[in-house]
Amino acid sequence: MNTTPYIPNHNPEPIPEKTLAEYEKEIILNVLSRANWNISEAARILDVGRSTIYRKLKQYRLHARVAAQMH
User: Fold this and answer.
1) In a 3-state reduction of DSSP, which class is residue 39?
2) Which of 5, 52, 53, 58 would staple 48 via disulfide (CB 3.0–4.6 Å)?
3) How far, rounded to the nearest angstrom, does the alpha carbon of residue 30 sit from its chain's CA centroid?
């Protein structure tokens, strides 16, 4: 007995070219830019703690040089 479900006209979506980490980094940068690099405001928008933002900035090596380029 075949247990594979039948899916009519199934066309799989293309696999994204970015990694999850790349999407996360992009989102964090966009929100920080919108929040004028106010960590507290960015954390509120993303519904995470400020320490999470600081940890992600360190993880992705995003420091003041990036902030200066974003303004």
Assistant:
1) helix
2) 52
3) 9
Q: Does the residue 10 lie in any domain?
A: no
How many independent structural domains does the chain possess? 1
Give the pLDDT of the chain (71 residues) as one tens digit per residue: 667 776 667 677 777 789 999 999 999 999 999 999 999 999 999 999 999 999 999 999 887 555 556 55
Can you spell out the DSSP letters for the chain? Answer: ---SPP-TT--PPPPPSS-HHHHHHHHHHHHHHHTTT-HHHHHHHHTS-HHHHHHHHHHTT--HHHHHHH-
What is the domain range of residue 52? 20-70
* 8 falls within a domain: no
pTM above 0.70, yes or no: no
